[in-house]
User: What shape does this take?
Amino acid sequence: MDANPNAAALSIVVMAAGKGTRMKSALPKVLHPLAGRSLLHHVLATTAGLGASSTIVITGHEAAQVEAATQSMERVRCVRQQPQLGTGHAVQQAVPHLGDEGVTLILNGDVPLIEAATARALVAACGGTKLALLTIELPDAAGYGRIVRNVKQEVRAIVEHKDASEAQRAIRDVYTGMLAAPTAWLKRAVMALENRNAQKEFYLTDIVAMAVAEGVAVVATPAAGETEVLGVNSPLQLADLERRYQKRLAEALMEAGVRLADPARFDQRGTLQCGQDVSIDVGCVFEGDVTLADNVRIGAHCVIRDARIDAGAVIHPFTHIEGATVGAGALVGPYARLRPGALLGADVHIGNFVEVKNSTLARGAKANHLAYLGDATVGERVNFGAGSITANYDGANKHRTVIGNDVHVGSNCVLVAPVTLGDGATIGGGSTINKPAPAGKLTVARAKQVAIEGWVRPKKGKPAD
Ligand code: UD1
Ligand code: MG
Assistant: This one.
């Protein structure tokens, strides 16, 4: 075949039309999450860095859902394959959308951890003229297409497991499902495929024997490791890949100095940036974008999503944080819940069973037990008593509570918003406050205590008939 003058033009086809029967799920297989992102997104995030001129995703089973998931992605186009008649038939659907130059890289939507370096190596091995197959040696090759070679060790064909002879089934060198080929040749080859085989499918792998017959060179490129070529077909395989991936993330953090109590009990489902001397106890889950500054300590079993925790803050066990900022030196938990818009200043203390939502707490404010602060502005050094809440919702609208500096709110108070407590105010325990509480004064709003003279406690008598 002629050397391609424009070998640099790269097209990518990601096959994602298969049913994923063994997942036993209504969700299409390629949309199942691994470390917080769908399998398909992992593949597309990798391909995004390869400089391809076009990326085509072949959809079929639950196509609309898969297409919706890729809608916002640049230079990704979905092409439907209906019905799904095999991997060769899948690539046939891409043919009208492929140019006549350069190289096409075929990947699988359910092989999420393929690495950019491997994909590049495969494209380089193709070099615009050869058919390059990504292969791996597996101790148990059952189910895979076997790489069949001649005595000179040249690749002659791929034979699918179901079509393989006993001798071929003994081959451990298998096709991973990923290849790179000169685009113009690939287009012709896939359109010439036939389905005379055990599965009555159009096998993409039959292009290998075609290449050999036509004198197109075929090269096998071994994958660097097993993890990047493992596919997901079942919940068990998905969980296995998840653990492998989490292990990598945990190791990278530990390399950077983060102290994980147990790397096997750590989950990162987004980005996690850590300063120096950060320690994370077992069973924590980090989602979205999380930043932990120097000397932050995270206790066991915390779930932290889209949050910034400033230097020296301590998050005690079983705390749930989402969309919040925790100031330097703050103490949060155990069993605290910070919801979106919780902004805690330096040295704030939020204790057990305290919920904070859309509220700002200034330096040194404390709510140590059993409290709710919603839509509140809380001043410095405020002490918010056990069992006290802001009643921020009138059934239709949310209202704000504004608490000045140095306010003490006793236990079991209800602050009915909108309401303001002036600087230095003290609110007596058990008060329901729905009018402004003046600065510097004790405000009490509860029934007066009385002792009833001459009252006699009832005695047990005969039951009435
Ligand atoms: C395929 C290879 C096999 C290889 C194995 C690696 C073929 C014929 N066989 O087999 O040599 O060892 O992968 O995992 O290619 N798909 C479609 N449309 C279809 C059929 C499949 O888009 O009509 C997609 C699937 O969603 C999947 C990929 O193609 O992402 C592979 O399909 P699958 O059915 O898993 O092929 P295997 O039988 O595993
Ligand atoms: Mg498969």
Notes: The chain is about 15% helix and 30% strand. The chain has two domains: 7-229, 258-443. Confidence is low (pLDDT under 50) at residues 1-7. The first strand starts at residue 10 and ends at 16.
